[in-house]
From TrEMBL:
Gene that specifies this protein: proC
Catalyses which reaction(s): L-proline + NAD(+) = (S)-1-pyrroline-5-carboxylate + NADH + 2 H(+); L-proline + NADP(+) = (S)-1-pyrroline-5-carboxylate + NADPH + 2 H(+)
Annotated protein name in UniProt: Pyrroline-5-carboxylate reductase
Subcellular localization: Cytoplasm
First-level EC class: oxidoreductase
GO cellular component: cytoplasm
EC nos: 1.5.1.2
Pathway: Amino-acid biosynthesis; L-proline biosynthesis; L-proline from L-glutamate 5-semialdehyde: step 1/1
Domain Pyrroline-5-carboxylate reductase dimerisation: 146-249
Free-text function comment from the UniProt entry: Catalyzes the reduction of 1-pyrroline-5-carboxylate (PCA) to L-proline.
Keyword Cytoplasm in record: yes
GO BP, one annotated term: L-proline biosynthetic process
Protein's organism: Candidatus Nucleicultrix amoebiphila FS5
MF-aspect GO terms: pyrroline-5-carboxylate reductase activity
Annotated family: Belongs to the pyrroline-5-carboxylate reductase family.
Length: 254
């Protein structure tokens, strides 16, 4: 996320990062808008927005250290998977504004999907702040139900992992077919990049586009008979279900 924000650094007056791992900030250490601290004890003031970008299991240890920096005007954003808005309420004052955000990896290049849900309806300056922070990372989707939020995250937030694995599979298949590794890798990557750009610029459904490139008795038809005959749709169904079930487990973990 920080990489994505720094591509639009003019949108922010300053960013303070708290992390014990200074090596993770190596490329930003000389950036005049970024301040770095190894622990929250060194912070000196409250903030307009605080973003928690830690693993879900770390939150119980991390959140108490930030109570003193949160007031009635602070927006608390977390990108931790699975943890509900109610979980955050137990650590801060009742009037605190919480936002769950779930960006995905393409946010680094401002082509991400960012799911958002808030503890109260955002209005005025608060809504504008969240919008400005997140829209530089990609397309924003506001949801009003946390069950739907976690279900959507099983597609959009986990999705890059699925897509990268598919690219990996195509690379390996092309190599097995006889292509050299370099050309197999380039063709596989450009295949997904090009199809993504095409989808972005057409209103046609994916099914309609598939039909358009599938000539009767052609190569694509022969290949799709194998793919669709292998219960591929059911595999995708189980994939998203597994991600969603894991989100439900995370809710119950400390």
């Amino acid at each position: 996320m920080l990489q994505g924000w720094m591509k639009h650094s003019s949108s922010f007056s300053s960013i303070t990062v708290v992390t014990p791992h200074s090596s993770s900030l190596k490329e930003f250490q000389n950036h005049h808008q970024i301040s770095w601290f190894s622990s929250p004890e060194h912070l000196k003031s409250n903030f307009d927005v605080i973003v928690f970008a830690v693993k879900p299991y770390q939150l119980s240890d991390v959140l108490p250290h930030y109570r003193q920096y949160v007031d009635s005007k602070t927006i608390v954003i977390s990108i931790a998977a699975g943890k509900t808005l109610e979980f955050y309420r137990s650590y801060f004052a009742p009037q605190t504004l919480f936002v769950r955000a779930m960006p995905n990896t393409p946010s680094i290049v401002s082509k991400g999907i960012i799911l958002l849900i808030s503890s109260i309806k955002l209005q005025g300056n608060s809504g504008n702040q969240v919008q400005e922070i997140m829209e530089v990372l990609g397309k924003i989707f506001w949801l009003e139900d946390e069950e739907l939020f976690d279900k959507a995250a099983s597609l959009s937030s986990c999705g890059p992992g699925y897509v990268f694995h598919l690219v990996e599979c195509f690379e390996k298949a092309a190599i097995e077919l006889g292509l050299e590794q370099e050309i197999a890798q380039k063709l596989s990557r450009e295949l997904f990049v090009g199809c993504g750009a095409y989808l972005e610029n057409t209103a046609e459904s994916a099914q309609k586009l598939r039909d358009q490139v599938t000539s009767p008795k052609g190569m694509t038809e022969a290949a799709l008979k194998v793919l669709m005959g292998s219960n591929f749709q059911e595999i995708i169904n189980k994939t998203l279900r597994a991600a969603y079930e894991r989100a439900k487990e995370i809710r119950k973990e400390g």
